[in-house]
Amino acid sequence: xxxxxxxxxxxxxxxxxxxxxxxxxxxxxxxxxxxxxxxxxxxxxxxxxxxxxxxxxxxxxxxxxxxxxxxxxxxxxxxxxxxxxxxxxxxxxxxxxxxxxxxxxxxxxxxxxxxxxxxxxxxxxxxxxxxxxxxxxxxxxx
Length: 142
Prior knowledge:
This protein has 142 residues and is mainly β.
């Protein structure tokens, strides 16, 4: 491995209404289509924790998301117009339930993979944030 490496870090922000959150927990093979945004950042640095961000300032990209509980080889698929997030780990969808139903109303996790970008393979880290739609509504300033 070279002394310096380039990787891609993508933060994903997705908001689901209650009906969608419960459908992912209750029904098999559920696909929820929604709009969210991501912030991709190229970074360069040594394999140690010291990293130098090279693509600041980060731009937010609004894109299409499919959130599904269908099994797949990848947790996150990069698609033409956005991403598909596969929530297939045991009991992860139950975290989307309301607090009164023993859930958290949200899921936050990291996923590491390698992706082919213009004939080059790069390490990629996805930070996924799926929250209740009310979190977004409460953050809007009128």
